[in-house]
Amino acid sequence: MKVGNNTFYYQYEPSLLDSLEAQEIQAPYNCRAGYCGRCKVRLLTGEVKYLDEGMVDLKEEEILTCICVPKTHIEIEIPED
Length: 81
Ligand code: FES
Known about the structure:
Layout: E1 2-3, E2 6-7, H1 16-22, E3 40-45, E4 48-50, E5 62-64, E6 68-70, E7 75-77
The structure holds FE2/S2 (inorganic) cluster.
The site of FE2/S2 (inorganic) cluster has 13 residues, from loops.
């Protein structure tokens, strides 16, 4: 997976958020369950698979990292606070 200018390997963690954290990539979160929308990032390329149904309205290119895993190589953009 690619985050900004850096490429990482998806580690088989329970979620994309967990994998980002395992690789010490700063990623926002709060509820970790698809309710708050805090973990929203932009999916620039690739596909993800949802493990749960989120309760947040998302734009077409947005994903919730706490409830999905990559299906393909992905490139994401994490919003700056
Ligand atoms: S951390 Fe709340 S929706 Fe992902």
